[in-house]
């Protein structure tokens, strides 16, 4: 699918039009709207296998996709009741602001500017990433410090452009950027040899290398990570109830991994005597009531997608096509950053 | 808004008076448009406030923080968003101005070629027009960019047609003169030559009117300009320093450069617009009645003088108005640059929009820029059109 600039402009205009025409948003309405509609509308990246991509039958899969599925399972008791809206980097925030989507789960970096001034809230990080560089093996480059004067392909509308500029300046590398509007165009330019390096989040590089390269072995991702990129879903401001649900669904998935609840054993676990497991699965306390849900809310999410560890392994982990190490995304008690406040 | 009614007799504030009714209708229409605009504006601002979206043009003075791949004027990431917009605008102007000149030249040649008596030339020019006019511009840009990035050699094995000139996926890189103070005199010499050429043309004209004899204008004029520049350069101490691109381990650096993105835009826009201009030129020439040709022949004018003095002045009247639209189209079409990674106004605005989240402000800025550009072009072309109109004496 190619996105023409015209299409983007049109999308932006429609978004603006929607902003201009709709009545003011009201708190708590998102959940009602979703339930009435019988569908969660989720904004995703159309071409980032491992995080979100559709197969030839139109089935979406990936880490970002699973977040939406878990939310849909919680709210609608059916993880398939989702309308997927593919968005490019430049369209994503306007789509969320204008109410075209309920939730944006599109490998989006959580930054202060975005959290504070775009009319949205990040609900947390689902993948801790950092920006890296990819070069051809043939170039024999082994460190980003060797990229002096190099031409670098980058996608517009991302935090990536600024990081690249900052790094290039700080390290005195004087790199030149060529900025493309879509990820497809950026990929094509890099693989045609227009640029000596490709820069984006390291996970994105792995995905692009795996999907687009004729032979993934011909490309190397350099060891330097030049930024912090906590990626996570975001929702519109002004609806605390929906915000809390998305936030706690993700926490529940992390908590489930910590206490050994998996997609396969979640039914058996319902009989568990562990008080923490009982609270998560709602067999003792009704934690869902506080969120405006029923007591099986977390059970349905885990049943639909598995716990966070399973989601990671299935989509991007060492055994998947992307072969990304668990690293920073491991649980807090295994040396990573994934830490969920107690479900209690 | 003036009505085409006969001159009003006496103004009366009655529904029976046509001029009064017209006034009321017009005021109502204006009031409705203003009210609609105000409603949308108010609603947008209120919605944005409710959703916590910040707005305003204050971001323009803040540092941009991103770099721009190529620019006419140097740009540093510490400079403001406003400067970044100007750099984007200058990139748009660069491709638009050069594109307009080249498209006019190419279009005129092809347009005349379509009327040629030579079968091969006529058919080729016809095929050119049909192909490039009927394939969407965006597609053409993709094809040109594909040619640039796929078919050219990688930078390690860059073509070197002449020593110091490199042609590769990195674009065209060539030596440029190092700036020396002596070059000021070269520029002054060129300027003086320009004035001299103008004086020569004036003298030739008065000579023609006085004696009826024709003196050549173009070649001597060009000679005067070149001689002026050369003289200035020599007086300035003939600075000969060149900035020659050099091959480093990874890249070719130094010298002047045009990127594949710029070349793609320039070639794409030129070739596409030229196909329309060719048709306009052909139509303009064919609009001059055959009798004019016969009259010119009867007066004993040579073929060249006939074209210059009889046909062109009449054809231009037909050509200029649609030509103006093509210039405007070319300028606006340059916004397709985002598709191939050329940092034009739209591309810079997209980046700014994403860094700041000020969608409405950025889009408004871009619209204002294109509107200003278009109005300026139209004003200039309309003035030129007035000059070429029939002088009624």
Q: How would you describe this structure in keywords?
A:
A: 344 residues, alpha/beta, D-Maltodextrin-Binding Protein, domain 2, 2 domains, B: 393 residues, mainly alpha, MetI-like fold, two-stranded antiparallel sheet, 65% helix
Task: Show the helix and strand layout.
The complex is a heterodimer of chains A (344) and B (393).
Chain A: H1 5-21, H2 29-37, E1 40-44, E2 47-48, E3 52-54, E4 60-61, H3 63-76, E5 82-86, H4 92-97, E6 103-104, H5 112-117, E7 120-122, E8 127-129, E9 131-136, E10 151-155, H6 160-170, E11 176-180, H7 183-191, E12 197-201, H8 202-212, E13 219-221, E14 229-231, E15 234-236, H9 240-258, H10 266-269, H11 275-281, H12 287-290, H13 297-305, H14 308-315
Parallel strand pairs in A: 1-5, 1-6, 10-11, 10-12
Antiparallel strand pairs in A: 2-3, 3-4, 6-15, 7-15, 8-14, 9-12, 9-13
Chain B: H1 18-50, H2 81-113, H3 119-134, H4 137-151, E1 166-168, E2 171-174, E3 176-177, H5 182-211, H6 218-235, E4 242-243, E5 246-247, E6 252-253, E7 256-258, H7 260-286, H8 290-298, H9 303-333, H10 345-356, H11 359-388
Give the tally of β-strands of chain B.
Answer: 7
Query: Oligomeric status of the shown chains?
Result: heterodimer
Total individual domains of chain A: 2
So, the CATH homologous superfamily of the largest domain in chain A? Periplasmic binding protein-like II
End-to-end separation of chain B in angstroms reads 31 Å
Q: Strand percentage of chain A, roughly? A: 15-25%
The backbone outline of chain A, from C-alpha atoms, is globular
User: Can you give the mean pLDDT of chain B?
Assistant: 89
Helical stretch count of chain A? 14
């Amino acid at each position: 699918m190619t996105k023409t600039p015209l299409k983007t402009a049109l999308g932006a205009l429609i978004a603006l039009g929607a902003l201009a025409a709709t009545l003011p948003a009201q708190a708590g309405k998102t959940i009602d709207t979703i339930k009435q509609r019988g569908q969660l509308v989720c904004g995703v990246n159309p071409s980032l296998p491992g995080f979100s991509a559709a197969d030839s039958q139109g089935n979406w899969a990936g880490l970002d996709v699973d977040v939406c599925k878990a939310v849909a399972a919680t709210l609608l008791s059916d993880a398939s009741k989702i309308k997927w809206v593919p968005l490019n980097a430049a369209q994503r925030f306007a789509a969320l602001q204008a109410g075209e989507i309920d939730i944006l789960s599109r490998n989006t970096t959580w930054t202060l500017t975005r959290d504070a001034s775009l009319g949205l809230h990040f609900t947390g990080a689902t993948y801790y990433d950092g920006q890296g560089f990819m070069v051809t093996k043939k170039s024999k480059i082994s460190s980003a410090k060797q990229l002096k004067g190099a031409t670098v392909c980058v996608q517009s509308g991302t935090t990536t452009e600024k990081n690249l500029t900052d790094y290039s300046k700080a390290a005195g590398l004087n790199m030149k950027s060529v900025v493309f509007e879509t990820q497809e165009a950026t990929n094509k330019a890099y693989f045609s040899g227009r640029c000596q390096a490709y820069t984006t989040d390291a996970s994105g590089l792995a995905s692009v290398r795996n999907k687009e390269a004729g032979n993934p072995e011909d490309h190397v991702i350099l060891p330097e990570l030049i930024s912090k990129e906590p990626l996570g879903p975001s929702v519109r401001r002004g609806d605390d109830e929906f915000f809390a649900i998305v936030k706690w669904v993700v926490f529940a998935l992390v908590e489930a991994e910590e206490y050994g609840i998996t997609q396969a054993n979640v039914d058996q676990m319902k009989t568990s005597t562990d008080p923490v497991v009982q609270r998560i699965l709602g067999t003792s306390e009704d934690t869902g009531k506080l969120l405006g849900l029923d007591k099986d809310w977390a059970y349905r999410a885990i049943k639909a997608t598995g716990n966070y560890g399973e989601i990671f392994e299935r989509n991007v982990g060492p055994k998947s096509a992307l072969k990304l190490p668990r690293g920073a995304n491991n649980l807090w008690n295994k040396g990573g950053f994934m830490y969920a406040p107690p479900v209690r | 808004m003036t009505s085409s009614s006969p001159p009003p007799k006496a103004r009366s504030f009655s529904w029976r008076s046509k001029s009064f009714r017209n006034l009321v209708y017009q005021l109502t229409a204006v009031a409705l448009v203003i009210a609609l605009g105000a409603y949308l504006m108010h609603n947008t601002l209120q919605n944005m406030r409710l959703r916590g979206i910040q707005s305003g043009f204050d971001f323009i003075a803040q540092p941009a923080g991103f770099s721009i791949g190529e620019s006419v004027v140097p740009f540093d990431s510490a400079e403001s968003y406003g400067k970044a917009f100007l750099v984007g605008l200058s990139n748009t102007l660069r491709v638009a101005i050069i594109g307009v000149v080249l498209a006019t030249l190419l279009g005129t040649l092809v347009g005349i070629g379509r009327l040629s008596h030579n079968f091969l030339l006529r058919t080729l020019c016809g095929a050119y027009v049909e192909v490039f006019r009927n394939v969407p511009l965006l597609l053409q840009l993709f094809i040109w960019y594909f040619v640039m990035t796929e078919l050219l050699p990688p930078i390690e094995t860059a073509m070197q047609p002449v020593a110091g000139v490199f042609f590769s996926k990195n674009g065209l890189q060539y030596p440029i003169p190092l700036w020396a103070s002596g070059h000021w005199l070269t520029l002054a010499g060129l300027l003086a030559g320009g004035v001299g050429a103008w004086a020569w043309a004036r003298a030739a004209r008065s000579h023609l009117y006085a004696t009826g004899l024709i003196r050549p204008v173009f070649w001597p004029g060009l000679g005067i300009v070149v001689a002026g520049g050369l003289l200035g350069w020599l007086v300035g101490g003939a600075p000969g320093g060149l900035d020659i691109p050099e091959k480093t381990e990874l890249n070719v650096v130094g010298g002047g450069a045009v990127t594949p993105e710029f070349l793609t835009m320039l070639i794409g826009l030129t070739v596409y617009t030229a196909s329309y201009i060719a048709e306009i030129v052909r139509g303009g020439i064919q609009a001059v009645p055959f009798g004019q040709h016969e009259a010119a022949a009867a007066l004993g004018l040579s073929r060249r003088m006939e074209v210059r003095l009889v046909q062109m002045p009449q054809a231009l009247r037909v050509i200029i108005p649609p030509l103006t639209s093509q210039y405007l189209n070319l300028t606006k079409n340059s916004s397709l640059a985002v598709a191939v990674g050329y940092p034009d106004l739209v591309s810079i605005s997209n980046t700014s929009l994403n860094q700041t989240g000020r969608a409405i402000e950025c889009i408004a800025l871009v619209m204002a820029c294109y509107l200003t550009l278009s109005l300026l072009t139209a004003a200039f072309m309309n003035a030129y059109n007035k000059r070429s109109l029939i002088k009624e004496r």
